[in-house]
Design brief:
With 250 residues, this protein is an alpha/beta fold. The chain contains seven helices and seven strands. It has a single domain (11-243), classed as NAD(P)-binding Rossmann-like Domain (Rossmann fold, 3-Layer(aba) Sandwich), CATH 3.40.50.720. Helices cover 40% and strands 16% of the residues. Helix 1 (20-31) runs parallel beside helix 2 (43-55), helix 1 (20-31) crosses helix 7 (218-229) and helix 3 runs parallel beside helix 4.
Amino acid sequence: MAGIFDLTGRLALVTGAGQGIGAGIARHLAAQGARVVVNDIRQERAEATAEVVRRAGGQAEALAFDVTDREAVRAAIATRGFDVVVNNAGNAGAQLMHPRRFRDMDPSEWAGPIDVNLHGVMNTTHAALGGMCDRGFGRLVTISSGAGVVGLPIGVAPYGAGKGGALAFMRHIAIENAGSGVTANSIALGMMEMTEVHDAALVAKLAASVPCRRLGTGDDVGPAVVWLASDQAGWVTGQTIHVNGGGLTT
């Protein structure tokens, strides 16, 4: 009998895995035996994560593409036979997200967060789903946010719309494909460490707002993804699991 959460022989894609949370997820999947394809919009970041995985004894390759480019996604995914797809690419994609009240936003600022957090998830799911159903096994995991579950006064309404839309989308995909051996679940994250933030005072302030008194990391998210990707989670689908240190914010 295979060990619990054993992913040996599974081929997994993690989008946006060139740094941060996605890199942690890739490491944990590989540690359980999965062959991991590390995606990022930048090839050098994807390769850096893949090299870390390989140095730890895992199997990984880098594959750069933009999840918002439907044709690039189809070309990268459709013929690969992925068993596990983790939709981690987020924030505002290739753009920087500038939090501000929605009424003060220019409509041009809406597209980035919605494209990557909703359309990107739809693109990867569409490209992978047919093959998963044909083979009778598939695990779709979308990394979402508390901002997709509750309203927040921090100026991220389009981001929340994208994240919330992806949560609803996953629930529908779960029900449509439950009889085909494919599960679709989401993880709603709380306040996470951010690689671009180097202000110690700000980090301490953010950590103090979390009941567990620290920010989350990829090592907090990775084990949850491993479970959802495993055979043991075959009766878990259409769910949103909160990994947030006891809080609800992003």
